[in-house]
Amino acid sequence: MSTQDGPVVCVSYLASAELWSVTKFPTANQGAAIRSVEHSIAADGPMASAVLAALEVPTLLIANRIGGDEEGGRVGRWLQQHHVPTTAVASAEIGTP
What we know:
The protein has a single domain (about 10-90), classed as UDP-N-acetylmuramoyl-L-alanine:D-glutamate ligase (3-Layer(aba) Sandwich). Helix content is about 25%, strand content about 30%. It has helices at about 45-55, 70-80; strands spanning about 10, 15-20, 35-40, 60, 65, 90.
């Protein structure tokens, strides 16, 4: 057994997400006016990796590929801004989930 420390590995799916702000939650089968939209990422793995990176804990996110589309660009920039090393690569052949 090795005593060498390695990164904390987070295994997760990776997707583009949007957080919508509404004045009032709609009732069933109704709509609501959207006040603002904030772009984010999904799921827990990328978020946990970002927290670890901010705490300067070595981390690695193992995740699915992202697309070469606009959403994939946003996800890639988010990962870079939060200094998250990942196995996820952009591919023009797929769309970002």
